[in-house]
Amino acid sequence: MNFSLYDTNNIEEISGLFNETFSASEGADEGKVIGELTTELMKTTDCDELYIFVATEGDKLAGSIMFSRLTFETRIDAFILSPVAVHPSFQRQGVGQKLIQFGLDTLRSKGIELVFTYGDPNYYSKVGFQLVSEDLVKAPQPLTYPEGWIAQSLKGEQLQAINGSCRCVAALNKAEYW
After folding, report:
1. How far apart are CA 129 and CA 41, in angstroms?
2. Average pLDDT of the chain, as a whole number
3. CA dihedral 52, 128, 122, 151 (to 10 degrees)
4. pTM tops 0.70
5. Cα–Cα dist 153/173, whole Å
6. What distance, in Å, lies between the first and last C-alpha atoms of the chain?
7. What one-character DSSP code corresponds to residue 116?
8. CA 171 to CA 178: how far, in whole Å?
C-alpha cells in the first residue's frame, strides 16, 4: 500500500471513490451528497487550505482523506479531517487508520498545531483523537452529534480552550454536514 499527497488532477477519480464508498455504506443519496462535497472542496478551496491524501494499491485508489483549514479568531494553525473514504474492497484492513496517520504526520511536519474531525469517536480515537467539549472549542456549525466533535494536538500538548468562533472552508460550511 502506498500513501501520498494527492494532486487534484483527477477530481472525478476522488469524487467517484467517495460516492461509491458512501453509497455502499449509507445509501445512494448519501453517496451522491459526499461525492458532491468532495468535488466542491477540490474546485473551490485554495490549495493552501486543503490537503488531500490517498492510499493506492498498484493503480487502484484504495482510500482518500481530506483536511481543510479551520480559522479561529486567534492565530492557531488548524485543519479539520473530513471526509474520509476507504473503498469497500479495502475496508477492515487498517488502510483508513494508516492513511489518517500518514496525513497527520505530514501536517505535523508542516507545523500544523491542531486537527479536528466530526465523526465516530471509537474509530478516530485509534489515531489519537479525543472528545472536545464545545465549551473548550466551538464548532463552526451547530452539532447534531456533539459526541463526534473530536480533536488532537499535533504538538503533543493537552488541548487548550480556544475563545471565540471558528470557521471552516465554504464547501464544508453547510448545516447538513454538521
Report:
1. 23
2. 95
3. -70
4. yes
5. 23
6. 32
7. E
8. 12
